[in-house]
Amino acid sequence: MTCKVWEILLHNMTMAFTPEMAINMWNHMVENHVSMLDESANELLIGLCNLGRLVEVKRFVETMLDKRISIYDSTMEKLKNPFYKKGRSFRDKYDSLSREWKAMKMS
Fold first, then answer.
1. pTM
2. Which is deepest, 5, 45, 53, 75, by most CB within 10 Å?
């Protein structure tokens, strides 16, 4: 399958199916070294965020940063409001992720 097809499948799974299916698809892509993970990673983060699954978003952002997968500026901006609306604890989590993300971009 082409990278665009993977991206569309992942997006559809986060919107129409279950987040677990999207996560399984993501894990399959990582394990099988599917190229162009950046687009799919960003779709997964936005999809999980739209479903209010911020704890999973945090975990995946950390994993993606560790794997040097690029998280777009626009994705980080879309993640900010839901984290901030959830309260101080989640605001602190977002701020920590944002610092890690900025540090990775600088390196």
1. 0.77
2. 45
